[in-house]
Amino acid sequence: MSRIGKKPVPTPKGVTVSVAGQTVTAKGPKGELKFVVNDLCSVALDGDKVAVSPIDKESKDARAQWGMSRTMIANLMSGVTSGYTRKLELVGVGYRAAMKGTGLSLQLGFSHDVDFPAPAGVKFETPKPTEIIISGIDKQLVGETAAKIRSLRPPEPYKGKGVRYEGEFIFRKEGKKK
Questions:
Q1: Disulfide: which of 31, 49, 101, 127 matches 8 by Cβ 3.0-4.6 Å?
Q2: How crowded is residue 147: how many other Cβ atoms within 10 Å of its Cβ?
Q3: pLDDT at residue 1 above 70?
């Protein structure tokens, strides 16, 4: 039995939830998000709570989808009320980020600037030249965008230069000895 899946998802104040078949729609102050629940699970609206249950409790796939579906619905509720943010740090001499319209212009030690357009539903901020704040209401899209920016110049283990998540620990290696 899924301990996560058993708990119904409470609806926060200011959020309206509707369930139409397998589609759960949440509207809140930040926007609207939808999630389609897998056919192995059933979803129901009980007052101000959304409950997810597996159709076949003996099926391993249904039990796996059960907890995941409940978490995705909880992410919808959190996204339309408060949203999600992810911070990136640029470490290295000359590594900078600047806003270019709605996108980013990154100087990452290449011979050219890297322009990164903002996907729909994601907003960038650069409070310092070495800091990027990615925000939006879709948790998956914010995380994926942060991972794509980090993959442009991942942190290397010898000097620690590159784009890293805020607070990320980089295992450092010792250089060659003579």
A1: 49
A2: 13
A3: no
Tokens for 90? 């640029």
Place of tokens 């249904």: 62
Element holding 80 (H helix, E strand): helix 60-81
Asked whether the beta carbons of 85 and 135 are under 8 A apart, the reply is yes
Residue of 119, 96, 122, 121 lying closest to 109 (CA atoms): 96
Per-residue pLDDT of 29-60, as tens digits, reads 999 999 999 999 999 998 889 999 998 888 88
Question: Rounded to an integer, what distance in angstroms lies between the CA atom of residue 125 and that of residue 116?
Answer: 13
What is the predicted pLDDT for the residue at 58? 83
First and final C-alpha spacing in the chain: 58
Alpha-carbon dihedral angle through residues 149, 108, 169, 76, given to the nearest 10 degrees:
-20
How many C-alpha atoms does 34 have within 13 Å on its Cβ side?
Answer: 6
CA torsion sign for 15, 19, 22, 25 is: negative
Tokens 């901020």 belong to residue = 125
Please give the pLDDT value at position 164: 95
Residue 45 CA to chain centroid, in angstroms? 25
State pTM to two decimals. Answer: 0.87
